[in-house]
Amino acid sequence: MAEPPEPQPPAPLHLPYAHNALRDALVAWAVVEVLVAVLVHLKWNIELVGEVGGALVALLFMYAPIYMAQRRAEDIEWYGFRLQPLGLGLVTAGVAIAVIVPLFALGYMKFYDLACKSDLLSALPLKGMCERYGGLSSMHWPKLDGELLQFFPVQLIVVALPEELFFRGYLLGLLEVRFPPKRRVLGGGIGLALLISSLAFALVHLPRDGGDPRALLTFFPGLLFGWMKSSTKSLTASTITHASCNILVHMLDLAVRR
Length: 258
Description:
Radius of gyration: 20 Å
Number of helices: 8
Structural class: mainly alpha
Number of domains: 1
Largest sheet: 2 strands, antiparallel
Shape: globular
Helix content: 55-70%
Oligomer: single chain
C-alpha cells in the first residue's frame, strides 16, 4: 500500500519588490485622488446601494490594490487583506477603542461647549451644528431605527475596509518597502512611509468633504491606523477601529442634538 503524500507547506506569499514601489504607490494614489474628485459628484441614490458616487469610490479603493497586486505579481494578502493574526488584531482594536471612545467623547463635548459660545471659534463647528447642539444636558441615546442599524455595517464594509485596503494595505505597504521604518513601537513602523500614507489619506478626504480644510484632520487617525497595520501585518485592527471611530462621531452627533 502506497504511503500517503506528506502535507505540503503553504506556498509563500509573493512579497513586494522595491523596484518602482514608490512610483507605483504615488501614481495609484494620484489616479485614485482624481477619480474620487469626480465620483463624489454623482449624488443620485439607488435602493439598497445608496449614493452612487460613494459606492463607486468604495469599489475604486477595493479594485485599485487588487489590480496593482496582479500587475506587480504580488499576493493581495501581503497588503494585509487577511484576518490573521485575528487575536492580535481584535486585542489591538479593543484597546484602541477603549482609549479613544472616552477621550474623544470628552474632547467632542468640550470643543462644542467652547466653540459654540465663542465668536473667535464660531467658524470651526460644522455648519448648523451649534444650533442643534444641546450640550451634556440634552444627551440621549439615539433611536435605533433601520437607517441607523444599516449605518453600522456600511461603515465597516463599504467605508473602512476599502479605505484601509488602499491606504494602509497597498499604499503604506509599498511605501514601507521603499522607505523602511527606522523606528518601531510595539512592532509598528514609525517613519516617512507612515507620514506620506497618512497625508495621502487626509488629502483624499478634501473632495469628499467639499474642500472643507477640516477634512485634513483625518491625517491624525491615519497615523494610528497605519501603525496598527504595520504592527499586526493585517487590516483587521485598523478596519475595526476606523469603522468604530466613524460610528462614534455619528452617534455623538445624534446624541447631543436638541
